[in-house]
Design brief:
Length: about 240
């Protein structure tokens, strides 16, 4: 095979191993603090809780419930990731008392005023990317990482490509660079302060997303991870959004 073909195969294998690392977590809960910072450095904070459900043979489900400040309290957001085809996403807005579907055209838009786009909240699925390209092996932070370029399948993605850094020792996603539709560097996501749960599953204690074009950043702090808490499908449909507490 050509050099190109082998680097694509290698890239895909690396990401596949990283995605498989997470198989079997079943479900989890975690508390989140989100700090939004504008170009001037002014901060605002949001507090929320998330619930995750692993789905076999498809993408995972994620429910986010906002607790404070008051203007966002009761807002709930559900992502149902699919391995192929567009993800399903809904948001419950308490002021309107209605559930609103996030259309595929808006998935590149900002989630609740943060630097995370709606599409960034989907679970990592191998099938979401048309091609993988192993670029190089290099130090990243305290680890040695594989850098792999990947190209979203979805034409409505806000990104032409992403470069992911996966550490060689544990196969964790350590860093992601996002390139916009003009192929300029838009954002960098850094996953930090990893801890291992149930002797298997690695989770970051902090995720920093920096927007290089706007000068804004959003940081997520994760606390009180719990796994295999008995969550079931019934918590993760659009009708349960109104009742999410």
């Amino acid at each position: 095979p050509s050099i190109m073909a082998s680097s694509q195969e290698e890239g895909r294998d690396i990401v596949k191993k990283a995605v498989q690392q997470d198989d079997g977590y079943d479900n989890s809960k975690v508390d989140l603090e989100m700090i939004l910072k504008n170009r001037q450095g002014t901060e605002s904070k949001r507090f929320m809780r998330t619930r995750n459900l692993e789905v076999h043979n498809d993408g995972d489900k994620l429910l986010i419930i906002f607790d404070r400040p008051r203007d966002v309290k009761g807002t709930a957001f559900l992502t149902v990731t699919h391995k192929t085809g567009p993800d399903d996403q809904w948001m419950y807005l308490p002021a309107l008392k209605r559930v609103k579907r996030i259309s595929s055209n808006n998935k590149s838009g900002p989630f609740m005023g943060s630097e995370f786009a709606y599409e960034d909240l989907a679970s990592q699925e191998l099938e979401k990317y048309a091609a993988y390209n192993f670029l190089k092996k290099e130090p990243c932070g305290e680890w040695t990482c594989f850098a792999v370029e990947r190209f979203p399948v979805d034409k409505k993605s806000g990104y032409t490509r992403q470069i992911v850094w996966i550490d060689e020792e544990y196969y964790r996603f350590v860093k992601i660079e996002y390139y916009d539709r003009k192929n300029s560097l838009l954002k960098t996501q850094s996953n930090q302060d990893f801890k291992q749960y149930l002797n298997q599953f690695w989770r970051p204690g902090e995720i920093l997303m920096v927007n290089h074009q706007s000068g804004k950043s959003s940081t997520l702090f994760f606390k009180n991870y719990q796994f295999q808490t008995g969550l079931t499908e019934r918590y993760f449909n659009k009708n349960s959004l109104k009742r999410a507490r």
